[in-house]
Specification:
alpha+beta, Immunoglobulin-like, 3 domains, 32% helix, disordered C terminus
Amino acid sequence: MSSHFYSFWRLLLYPTRLHIFCASIALLCCVPIIFPEICPETIRSTVISYAGGVLLGAQGFSTAFVVLSVVIHIFRLSNTRAFSQFFKWCGIWACCILCYILLAVAADVQPPQTQEDRAPIQTNTTLHPARDQLNGPASLVIPIDPARQPFDKLADAPNLIMLETQHREIFREYLEHSPRWSGLDGDDTFYSKPGHLVMVPPTTSGAPGLVHVCFRSLVEGDPLPEGYTIMKPGAELPADQDAHARIPDIAVDLGLNHYLLLAWRGTAHRETAFRAINAAIAATDARMQPLVESPTRETVARMLLGRESYPGDTPELRLSEPLAQEGAYQAEIYANPGEPGVILLYIKDLENDRTLRLLNCPARYSANPGELFRHDIPGSMPHWIRSTAGDDLSELFPSSTPLFVIRTGKQHQYFGVAFEVWFKPSDVRRNRRLLLRRCYKVQAYDPPALETPATDSPQT
């Protein structure tokens, strides 16, 4: 009897383990609340209701014990122990709340709707294709003009070679921090995954084509890219008696440990393909000119930031779905709210007014009403939020990849969504306001079930 009383008395005085147990129970109860889809639909509401009750009970039980413990320690004139028990209780539940927040971010929980959100969406708005040209340095689609490019030899790349041989550290720093180039290093089948650069020549004779571009760095002992023809800039292009033979994937050797990988996907017409490949090399090389002229970290920072503002007074939204990366999107918002705050991008299903995604980034602003600032979505978002954009697709969507997905529907089954751009001022006394609204037809992203080897990839 005395041993049981002693155990209860010690639990009353030092209930730390009890708090940890209650916090664990509460966190476990949060799972069906945050992820309701794991419960069968027939009992979902019952499970969530019971989970909420148990959560409140666990917190109340823990709170009651900490109050009793603190009161007893104070009556025993043990103020230090009283404060110690209180701070332990606060720390345990703070950790529990932090874990809850991380779970909520991972689940991408829809925000509670306000009266403004419940306003009916217009159903007669024109649906635009997600083929807008982005201006920022993280844009994954670049138009190229292959008209004046040679097709008998590989284009020269003087800027790339100079950076590789004379300013390798600066060159590597730029590649490692640019969303356009980072995140896919070491992957020879990069063109089957989202997040890489796509260069698009004009469509001719109804035969579309594009060039997938990515940098690959090698250290001593690494294998060379599998399935690629390794060539030096300016080298003769491989000849083939069959004019419609498969266009080889090319790895341009820049002299040390960097290769520029280029994979043509389109018509097997050799002249068209090699002109486009050379145009892609020339476009990549031209974009390195500022770094060649001033190989400093300040130049790297300017190139990573790009042009921040443009003249104009009407907010604008641009949405891009990079070719051959269906279901993955990136966007740019051009706005100047004139005061500090947060840009909110609501993505709503036109059919049922349901909020599918909510993305946000800090607002850029100035007092000049004729100046619009570029906001990259999701590029301006914090990395700890952006890295959850793909959830189980995190291996295909590295945190540095400037893409997001809409997790509703199936790939190739387009549906209409409204992109609503709101501004929430930092001054809590002021209401948020709608800046612009534009509707697009979108699709869900479906990751490939099987990776196709480079040597067997189709050309069309």
